[in-house]
Amino acid sequence: MRKLVYYVAVTLDGYIAGPNGEYDFYPICDDMAAAMSARYPEAVPTAFREHVGIPVDTPNKEWDTVIMGRGAYEPARSQGIVSPYSHLTQYIVSRTLAPVDDPQVRIVDTDPVELVRTLKAEEGMDIWLCGGGNIAGQLVDEIDRLVLKSYPVLAGDGIPALSGNFVPTRFDVTAREEFSNGTQVTWLDRRP
């Protein structure tokens, strides 16, 4: 069965972005960018692949599908990019967006839990939950793996990594790596 993997950057105080969706405050470093792009080339938007040395036709390694909320989709959309990850099947969960004319992008205005359960039952690679915190909160019971890029930054306010009901859920750390900018990437699997 396919797994839902929440791969996301997060501050020390649990935010994935600032109050207005800002994310440019995360300290970038070459060793982390190279390592994460090599491991997850599919997480690099199609339009930026060549700029970071990844050929556009690089095969996906972990995921063939991405799910995101409107907030995670909006930065690309505001730049006129309808299909930010054209190398993936993209599901945008939104009750306000109209359908788009692109076979790789599907706007979903129904229950995201049912969507994920349907996708998990299909053949394919794992599913990347790109964000944001609202959709992650709705899908907390379906998240099988977390890949948290924990940056050494306090935001003070912003979009939480997960919002919703109080549902303590145990995960086990399976790996951790630290980079030159102080960021730790931690891989965690849902405890059985």
UniProtKB/TrEMBL annotation:
**What Pfam families does its record include?**
RibD_C
Coiled-coil annotation: which residues?
Answer: none
Signal sequence coordinates = none
The Bacterial bifunctional deaminase-reductase C-terminal domain sits at: 3-184
The record's annotation in InterPro entries points to: DHFR-like_dom_sf (IPR024072), RibDG_C (IPR002734), Riboflavin_Biosynth_HTPR (IPR050765)
The UniProt entry's GO biological process terms, in alphabetical order, are:
riboflavin biosynthetic process
List GO molecular-function terms, semicolon-separated. 5-amino-6-(5-phosphoribosylamino)uracil reductase activity
Q: What is this protein called?
A: Dihydrofolate reductase family protein
Native source organism of the sequence: Rhodococcus rhodochrous
